Every structure is written in structure tokens, then in C-alpha cells.
Amino acid sequence: MKGRAVVELAVAVVAAVGCVLSWIAAATPIEVAPVLDGEPATTAISYSSPLLVLALALAGLAGVLAVLGIARLRR
């Protein structure tokens, strides 16, 4: 059963990396027009909802697989 635990931990690492990449890709800087004339434009961050949901799902999957993999290794 050690092989299965190693596979679970490897998939957990891949899911964690995917979570980080999805989170980074979710943010897009945008220029916001000034409210009053003569004021400078400001920069805001727009987030993509599907990529944030993907990051959340991958984080959950990584956590579950990490716990299961560690539990299998300790048995």
C-alpha cells in the first residue's frame, strides 16, 4: 500500500501547484477611469470567478489527498 500513498501524495502536490497557477491566472489588472476631471487613473484587480473556483477545488483536493497519503504511510 506504500505505492498508493506515494501516488496520492504526488497527485496532491500536482493539485497544489495547479491551485497556485490558477490563483495567479485569476487576477487581471485593469485601468479604472478617474471619477473627476484632472484626477489620475487608478489600477484595480479584476478576478475571474471560474479560475478562483478551480483554485478552491484544487486546494481542497490537494488537502484531502495529502491527509489520505500521510495516513496510509503511517499505517
Ordered list of secondary-structure elements with their pairings:
Layout: H1 2-26, E1 27-32, E2 42-47, H2 49-74
Antiparallel strand pairs: 1-2
Helix pairs in contact: 1-2
Question: Can you tell me about this structure?
Answer:
The structure is a single chain. With 75 residues, this protein is an alpha+beta fold. The protein has one domain (2-74). 68% of the residues lie in helices and 16% in strands. It contains two helices and two strands, in the order αββα. It has helices spanning 2-26, 49-74; strands spanning 27-32, 42-47. Strands 1-2 form a two-stranded antiparallel sheet. Helix 1 packs antiparallel against helix 2 (49-74). The radius of gyration is 20 Å and the shape is rod-shaped. The mean pLDDT is 95.
Helicity range: 55-70%
Instruction: Give me the side-by-side strand order of the main sheet.
Output: 1-2
> Could you give the count of β-strands?
2
- Sequence stretches where pLDDT stays below 50 over 5 or more residues: none
Largest sheet properties: 2 strands, antiparallel
Tell me the Rg in angstroms: 20 Å
Mean pLDDT across every amino acid position: 95
Shape: rod-shaped
Structural class: alpha+beta
Order of helices and strands: HEEH
Q: Count up the domains.
A: 1
Helix tally equals 2
